[in-house]
């Protein structure tokens, strides 16, 4: 247990530095990782990542989910807010309630000192019942989607257009996400725009 705590602390300490180097590399024009990120000027989002399953992993495009509202949850090893929502079962309950109408996809951003095995164990430990995907060294993804923080939720409509985003906030997720989902289902995009963090094209 002590070793695991030390490992988590080390990852927490290294994460901001790793993100800084990745962003600097992207700004400098370095090719960090090619996952075919697409965000059109109208706000349509698509990219490729590894879909983590019990059997292993396979490449998967977000556009394969078109036809349903999709919540993208960006997360990383050591994200305490993500772990709280998963450990308490809140996200599992939310997905179970709306799974006929929405998809939830956790996008796990991982780095050289992590592994897909760890991500797979995390998925099993917290009984994740939605799609769990992994992106390795994701500087281009962070830059193209203009993610202000690694713990961020993006809501896409049935055609893949971003309609709402919110930097990770446990209380907001618990209190407001059911309402946000209902607004998405009603296609009340004006209200969503007022509630959303800024969406940059």
Question: What would you note in describing this structure?
Answer:
This protein has helices spanning 2-27, 80-87, 90-98, 116-125, 139-145, 170-186, 189-195, and strands at 38-39, 45-46, 48-52, 57-61, 69-75, 102-110, 131-136, 152-156, 162-167. It is of the alpha+beta class. It has a single domain, classed as 3-Layer(aba) Sandwich (Glutaredoxin). The strands form 2 sheets. It has a 7-stranded mixed β-sheet. Strands 1-2 form a two-stranded antiparallel ribbon. Helix 1 (2-27) crosses helix 5 (139-145). The termini are far apart.
- Say which CATH homologous superfamily is assigned: Glutaredoxin
Helix segment tally = 7
User: What is the total domain count?
Assistant: 1
> What is the arithmetic mean of pLDDT?
79
CATH architecture: 3-Layer(aba) Sandwich
> Shape, please?
globular
Rg for CA atoms: 16 Å
Give the CATH level 1 class. Answer: Alpha Beta
The major β-sheet equals: 7 strands, mixed
Low-pLDDT runs of 5+ residues are: 2-11, 13-34
Structural class designation: alpha+beta
The ordered H/E elements are: HEEEEEHHEHEHEEHH
Main sheet strand line-up: 4-3-7-6-5-8-9
CATH topology: Glutaredoxin
Based on DSSP secondary structure assignment, what is the total number of beta strands?
9
Helix content: 40-55%
**First and last CA, distance:** 44 Å
How much of the sequence lies in strands comes to 15-25%
Protein name: TlpA family protein disulfide reductase
Domain Thioredoxin: 40-186
